[in-house]
TrEMBL record:
This is ABC transporter permease subunit. One of its GO terms (biological process) is alkanesulfonate transmembrane transport. It is a multi-pass membrane protein. The lineage of its organism: Bacteria, Pseudomonadati, Pseudomonadota, Betaproteobacteria, Burkholderiales. InterPro entries: MetI-like, MetI-like_sf. Belongs to the binding-protein-dependent transport system permease family. Keywords: Cell membrane, Membrane, Transmembrane, Transmembrane helix, Transport. Residues 58-238 form the ABC transmembrane type-1 domain. GO terms for cellular component: plasma membrane. The chain crosses the membrane at residues 62-84, 105-137, 157-181, 188-208, 220-238. It holds the Pfam family BPD_transp_1. It is found in: Cell membrane.
Amino acid sequence: MRWGLRAASLAACLLAWQWAAAGRINLGLLTFQNVPPPTEVAQAAWALLHSPKLAEHLQASLWRVFSGFTVAALVGIVLGLGIGRWKRWEDVLMPPLEMLRPIPAVAWIPLAILMFPSSEMSMIFITFTGALFPILLNTVHGVEQIDPRLIASARSLGGGSWAIFLEVVLPGAAPSIVTGLSIGMGTAWFCLVTAEMISGQFGIGYYTWASYTIQNYADIVVGMLVIGALGMGSSVLVKRAGHALMPWHQQEGKA
């Protein structure tokens, strides 16, 4: 029944899209006069599927996203654990990090070009900045929400600082860390178009941007849908892998 409801919801969205785009609906503030209908998007997707450049686009984007995400995960988790656990780390690191956090990815493009000699490293850096802060802040939150009585109990039983960190702090913060990794993966894909604006070669984000510059509207939607599908799939994989590594964490059921 749940899968049927989800399929019906998706079908309703597609029908509404087809009706609005095919009818060139104009609502004043919102117009569908230049929006391609799903039928045109399906044709463009079929053409891309049979294009020899699809593999190069996917390979380039996957490399950039997962490289930036991996570095962001390592840096975000290490800094988040330190900031959440020790006040000295928080006092030293949080002010500059909080100042950098609101800067959008597109604003980093000129500086990334200046800092890195290769465009590839610049694009990886953009995806890194997009993934870093969700991972970092969720890790900090996970450490700070641990019940202090658990740490006090472990200390009273003779646990040292390192043992408490590994057996109490890290497992207690793990659910929030996994949530941050899942969100960070999504934001890394979110920044992909911004990152690949630097390039001029391959990538799904570049394909989407190039389609816009030549006003190929159906291909724009195809690129958006591919990024959305890849982002959703990789976020789900990260979340499921995290839950598999946390057998002690049982997610509450939904009504």
